[in-house]
Design brief:
CATH topology: Potassium Channel Kv1.1, Chain A
Strand content: under 5%
Shape: elongated
Number of helices: 6
CATH architecture: 2-Layer Sandwich
């Protein structure tokens, strides 16, 4: 798995503690198949989690899908979280979707 003398190399496993197992399963499924169940979710929290992992590990296509889907999932309940996501990552289309919900 790894070439250096690391804990992960000795144990033969890599632990990513700040990502939910379901999210990582979706990411791995996407890497191997080009699709995953999380992309079919209407739950913005799932899409945001996938987006953050895709950004961290430079999975450009998954990140692009998430960016395209996030504006469709804006609700009054998640508008604040999605606004933070839009601000942090500079996602103008998502900002517009949140503004549209908040000022209608």
């Amino acid at each position: 798995m790894f070439e250096h003398s690391t804990k992960e190399n000795f144990e033969g496993r890599l632990e990513i503690e700040d990502v939910a197992a379901e999210t990582m399963e979706d990411v791995l499924q996407f890497v191997y198949t080009g699709t995953c169940g999380g992309l079919e979710s209407s739950d913005a929290e799932v899409i945001v989690a996938l987006h953050r992992v895709a950004d961290r590990y430079f999975i450009r296509q998954l990140k692009a899908y998430c960016i395209a889907l996030m504006p469709n999932g804006v609700t009054q309940e998640n508008a604040a979280e999605l606004w933070e996501e839009a601000q942090f990552f500079g996602l103008e289309r998502l900002k517009q979707a949140v503004r549209g919900l908040c000022w209608t």
